[in-house]
Structure formats: structure tokens, C-alpha cells
Amino acid sequence: MTRLQIEQFPCRSDNFGVLIHDPATGATASIDAPEEAAILSALKRTGWSLSHILVTHHHLDHVEGIAALKSRFSAKVIAPQKEADKIPEVDETVVGGQTFEFANHTVEVIETPGHTLGHICYYMPEAATAFTADTLFALGCGRIFEGTPLQMHQSLQKLAALPDETVVYCGHEYTEANARFAVTIDPENEKLMARAEEIHALRAAGKPTLPTTIGIEKETNPFLRADDPKIRALLHMPDAEDSDVFAEIRRRKDSF
Ligand code: ZN
Ligand code: FE
């Protein structure tokens, strides 16, 4: 099996576009369609032709380019069943726990309610790569717009259960702001401190901070570390449920 090629590029104000290309078949998928123009120029730059759009959730900054790209390329639009009525031009719906094939590569659908109720992530085990959109960010997680903190915590735990080496692409470049918050929750975490410095340097140089990995996030992302004794002590929640500790971290971030 040939290896997938992945092209990540910034679009809109702080979104990422991601293209996945299978050289053997020529198939190319866009993870979401934040913006037609940026995706078109990425396709031009790579010489790839769009065959699929894999949608994670219904927010405008993830679906706005779908109609234009579909009419140009006749790309197949795959979207979460629970939000299909809010997403334009859907050809095929998918649900959590199912798998499908993209150019002979298995894609697993992971249901991750919280940011929205139907949000899904896509995981490609052979490529050890996950596309987590607005559920898991580098050093952060999505705002809980539709679900509950408990749901979001469970969704993040599903992602944390993927192998440590899993490469993670996210929906937004929020890492620097996330780092500023993370160090207030986990100030004695040396790996986090070192990473925060790296992130500031990358952003100062105009470079992306992503992709990340599940292993790095488990070591440094406070939203995946609700079971950490030092974080619990800092929050005065030594004996609370993990999901309540997570909810408190999310609440503090919302007003940070
Ligand atoms: Zn969103
Ligand atoms: Fe978004």
C-alpha cells in the first residue's frame, strides 16, 4: 500500500485546510471545506484533483466551501448522519463506530459530541493519523456549544485512547492562546513549559504549530489531564470525578 500524502495549509482567519492524497489511485480528500479559494490554491500547488470532502460538523467555517468545490470537481461529500440536514450537498452519511474506504485505506468514524452534538472525527489507522477538527486542539479542546462537559470529556477520552504515535490534524491554529492558558493550569509540567516556548517561537516565525500527536497531547494538554494529581491539587479538586475536573478546566478557559 502506498503512503498517503497530507497537505496542511492555513485558511480563513485561523482555520486549517487539510488535503489527503493517495498517489496510487489519485484520490484526494479535503477534511472539511472551510474556504473554496484556499483549497483551490492548495490543489493547484499540489497538482491534485479533489474526489472527496470529509465533513466533521456543521459550522460555517467547516462547510462554506462545499457547494462550490463539489460543483467544480463532483467530489463526494461524506458527513455525520446526525448533522446531515445542516450540511450542504451531502452524498453519504456516516455514524460513529463505522468504517469506510478512502482509496483502499480504512477510515474509522469516531463520534465526538460536545462542540456540536453530531461532531465526528476521522481516524486512519494504517496511516496512524486522526483528523479531530474542533474536538481536540493542540493544548486545547473545542468550546462546548451544543453538548455537555461530560459528553466532551468522554469524546476527548476516545481520542486519548488512540495510539500515542497517532498524528493529529486539528481544525484551527489556536495553539498559542491555548498554551497561555495551559500553563496556568499545569505550571509545574516541564514538558508543557518547553512546548509553550517552542510554540511561541513557531508563531513568531509565522509557522504552524500542527500537526501534533496523541502522545504529546496526553503529556501537555490540560484537557486530557484531568486525572493528574498536580492539576487536581491546583484546582482544589483532589477527589472529584475526572469529568468534573475537566468541566472546571473548560469553565476557566471560557473566561480566560
Ligand atoms: Zn466548529
Ligand atoms: Fe471551527
Plain-language structure description:
- The chain has 256 residues and is an alpha/beta fold.
- It has a single domain (5-254), classed as 4-Layer Sandwich (Metallo-beta-lactamase, Chain A), CATH 3.60.15.10.
- Helix content is 34%, strand content 23%.
- It is built from 9 helices and 14 strands.
- The strands form 3 sheets. The protein has a 6-stranded mixed beta sheet with strand order 1-2-3-4-5-6, covered by helices on one side.
- Helix 4 (149-160) packs across helix 9 (242-254) and helix 5 (175-185) runs antiparallel to helix 6.
- The radius of gyration is 18 Å and the shape is globular.
- The mean pLDDT is 98.
- Fe (iii) ion (FE) is lined by residues 59, 61-62, 134, 171-172.
- Fe (iii) ion binds next to helix 2.
Nutshell version of this structure?
This protein has 256 residues and is α/β, with parallel strands linked by helices. 34% of the residues lie in helices and 23% in strands. It has helices spanning 36-46, 60-63, 66-73, 149-160, 175-185, 190-204, 214-220, 229-234, 242-254, and strands at residues 5-11, 15-21, 28-31, 52-54, 76-80, 92-94, 99-102, 105-111, 120-124, 129-133, 136-137, 140-141, 167-170, 212-213.
